[in-house]
Fold this sequence. Notes:
The complex is a heterodimer. Chain A has four helices and no strands. Chain A is an all-alpha fold. Chain A has one domain (13-81): ACP-like (Non-ribosomal Peptide Synthetase Peptidyl Carrier Protein, Chain A). Chain B is α/β, with parallel strands linked by helices. Among the domains of chain B are: 25-203, Chloramphenicol Acetyltransferase; 238-455, Nonribosomal peptide synthetase, condensation domain (Chloramphenicol Acetyltransferase); 502-625, 3-Layer(aba) Sandwich (Rossmann fold), CATH 3.40.50; 887-998, GMP Synthetase, Chain A, domain 3 (2-Layer Sandwich), CATH 3.30.300; 1002-1086, ACP-like (Non-ribosomal Peptide Synthetase Peptidyl Carrier Protein, Chain A, Orthogonal Bundle). Chain B has 31 helices and 40 strands. The longest helix of chain B has 23 residues, at 184-206. The A-B interface holds A 31, 33-34, 36, 38-40, 43-44, 46-47, 50, 52-57, 59-60, 63-64 and B 190, 194, 197, 201, 263-264, 267-271, 298-304, 306-307, 341, 344-348, 378-379.
Amino acid sequence: MNQAVHHVTSTDAVGSIIARFVRVPFTDNSGLAEIGLDSMSLVRVVVAFLPDTGQEIDAAALAELRTVGELRGWLLSVAAAGGETP
Amino acid sequence: MTAPLTTPVGTRPDPAPADAGPGWRAPLTETQLGLLMVHRTVAVPHLYNVVAEATLDPGCPHERLRAALAEVLAVQPALRMGLLTTPQPHAVLVDPPTPDALPLSDEPMAPGDWERAHRAAVDRLSRATFDFAAPPLLRAIHLRTTTGDRAALLLVAHHTVFDGYSLRPLVDDLNAALAGTLDAGSLRPKRERALRGELLAQQAAAGTPEVEAAAVAMGERLRSAPATVLHPGPGRPTETAFTGRRAELPLGAELSAAVDRARVELGATPFAFFSAVYSAVLARHSGNTTVTFGSPLLSRRTVGSFDLCGFFVHTLPLVFDVDWRVSFAEHLAGVAAPEVQSVKRRVAVSFNRVVRHAEPDRSSNRNPLFAAMLAMQDSTEVRPGGAVWALREHGTGTAKFDLWLGVTPTAAGWLLELEYDPELLPEPVADGVLRSLREAVGAAAKDPSTPLAGLFSDGSGVPEDDGRHRPPPVPGLDGWFRHTARRLPDAVAVEDPAGRLTYREVDAAVDAMAAGLRRRGVVPGQVVGLTTATLTDTVVAMFAALRLNARYLPLDLGLPEERLAYMTRQAECRLVVGEGAVPGATVLSPAEVAGDAGDAETVEAAGVADGTNGVAEEGAAGQPGAGYVMFTSGSTGRPKGVVMSEGPLLNLSAWQLDALAMDEGTRFLQYAPLGFDVSFQEIVPTLLVGGTVVSREPADRRDLPAVVRRIVDGDLTHVYLPVAALRPFVQAARSAGAGLERVTTVCVSGEQLVVDREIEDFFAERPHLTLINLYGPTETHAVTTQRLTGAARGWPSHVPIGVPVHGVTAQVIDRTGHLAPPGVAGELLLGGACPADGYVNDRERTDERFVPDPYGPPGARRYRTGDQVLGDADGTLIFLGRDDDQVKIRGYRVELGEIEAAALAHPRVREAVAAARGEGAERHLLLFVRLAGPAGAAGSADGVRRELAALLAERLPGYMVPGRVLPVDVVPTTGNGKVDRPALLATADALIARLEAPPDPDVAAGRPDDPLQAQLLELWAELLERRDLTLDRSLLECGAHSLNVLSALTRIEQRFGARIAVLDFFRAPTIRELARLVEAEVGAAAAGAGPAPNGATT
């Protein structure tokens, strides 16, 4: 993750899902609370991203996520562990 | 109606459960089981109803809504789920009802009827009851106007199948069904599989080592935190009917924007922000600096569960340390946000599991872990474009918690709602919480750097005084006395066994003694010691000191020499009138002082001749030099000499004459030792009004039968006793058959007054008597009173200290430093006319306790009592205890008097004293009792002890039930007539050893003595997988908890036909008690009055 560049990241799969729930521009460095992604919206992002309805979400890990970048990394790793990527 | 917990015939589960379609079967969650348990415990079957309202497109015809709702039920299996508890707890599904069979009623109406019909519909749904074995656990009403301009779908679901989040999938599916886009056929099996998958995932996650470790940690944290009790105080109900009231606090657009700005700036979630505010509000209103509240957290695990209705919530405790000095921003960042984060990490832990490890008091029907709740309600937003236009939840007229705060984002901004139980929080108290909440949110949002204490302002006004006052004819005590002496020269002023003295005689003797004192160099403000032996000499010496604008200092020759030396040295007292020897001072007899006065000379004359020598002119206002010095009998450290001046004493006298209805006919018993300030109230006001002060002697102070004879024979009208003497007085008067017809007023003071039936009955039989409970430290005069008469029955056992006397401002200052809101405990500070000058020759301790009074005029002072009190909903002050020696057991404030009052209800108990000993977790209660009847009747004493234990368990919350009841022969008292608890506690170990010396071998081994006990023992041994259970050991200590208790009680019901209330079990969780309960229940059923066995609904 490049700390210096505030590149817009809403063009990939994760980013475009986040963009559905957020009304302000954001980067990987954006804090989730700062861009208004509350815990309920966060759950909706996760549910929208993960295709396997039987897959479990680790709520404790979810609670640790602070930035868009962390959310992206976590989603990709969970999806990979679930055996599929969107 | 109660729900059956057995499997209905015809739905016996298959051996191999299916994940969809017929044969679907899944485990219940711990949380669902917990709720079933509460359902069985609490006699409010609709307590866990969730009532919601969807505002509908009024264009939607009823039949279309009916068909759509039927489709929703098809794809939401939880709404067709039944909850069964035998043979093992499990869930089953029924087929979706046809549209016609839906529990949905169509209620069209004229537009004008909307409000009424809407209220009635919400009310009806709120009270709906469900049979857990007969799904759907849902009812709905389609409310609509016939003009087609307004429509709503109101629905109720039982919480076991529906949490707050469920509103979201429900509305999504309803919108889709109404739009014709819901593919019910393909969704139904998917959703059934998803629900089962989620329930299995919940089961698998429930007992992992991580979850267990987190539950242990949460339990430990809760055990070490004090209980957050709102509106604490004696007589607080331990059980309520769970009635709820709601109050709304919409923050409005402007404040809501400020809240959001502040929390985004601080990087906090709404949950963390409102937790920070709420924890401060709860800290203020509970008087604690550590507070606990619960919050429901989404505990859904699988991706698919987020499309489902269901009950996947873990309500978990959050614990906050509140430091009043730190800023709101620091509290949020340093305490609230980390706590919220920490609980989110532990969201897999169920409430029941925390209860298991927190080992809370289970004797109440209230929530065992927390009294307060914060619910973030974020599922009521609706997406535009659907047939559902808006969504909201309704209160159901119930309160599961003492106080519940709901926070909902709405289009108009944040909506805060308080729901409270008015039995615990009367409306003025709840209003106070709402005010605190409003000001704290505002201050936190506008300036997060505000210290926590500064989020609040004064929560009430200074209480008004009682307005009782008889204005003095002249503004000085001695002047007033002389005024009366001239008016009634031949009236009797003082009576003691030596004889009577008229007002003229007393006045002349005072003159003579004052002259003698003056010649010996006594000047205004000087301290003159008194060791006078008779009441007459005492009265004369007191007024002689006052006549010289000097102070009298009572000295009790019974005190150790060292202490007397300290007192005279500290007060710079070199001259003593009376008898005996006092170290550091010259003692002169009254005759010696007055005798050398010279023939015709009077002080009055001398005063005229030599005005500079400070003899009080009649009419000289409240001389600063006149008054007394009294030493407080501090239990530790050096005693403090309180310098009391004429101003407060005049105020007290003027109040007392009116409040105690005193006049020339008053005959006041002089009972108190001179060294206690009560003696002033007995003597001086009586002599100001022209009444007679009557010596207690020859009766001994401790011989109450003799005192009663003196009261009757002496035609006394006013009696003032220490609290500890009231019961012996009442018993003595009853034994003597004394009607006390001449007495009008009985005053008591000195410690917390606890009354019981015996005392109340005594006054009811003598309705002409007024009992006045007075409160006031030596550093002020008597400052508050509560009046009771037998004509108005229903006395509170813990008698309030009442309302301030005239001229006194009584301020209850809470932990934030502001005047406490109603129902909030705080330190009592006393201002206005009452504070003394301070402590004699002790500037440092004076400045510490006598402080500036910002509520008075410039220069005003107030005295910090160190006493915790609270103003009740109607402003009456209730004494809670000292700051420094509060009795707390497992975090609960314990009122010893309440335990004693409960014990006194037993007919054999003559006196009862509760006391606490041990520290921290070892701290426990003992009850000492003096029993009526022949002493040493060991067998009968044992019976009484057992009966008492049962009686106390029935009447008191579990944490207040003493561990042991110890009979004693006498209850020792201290010098000033208060019960000597340390002396009693010192004998405790010996008493216990004596009681438990001859062990009963059967009981020690815990062997059952009847077949029922044996069967119950077997049942529990099986359930807990332990062989070491005994009849009297607490099953909770052996591993019983809310979930296996439910199983045990279900089995007992099946085997013995006895339905045992869960709460009854928790009150006395032993095999012996359980057997007793089963027998009582079976007996009642056999008599044809009890419930039918096997859980048949009644």
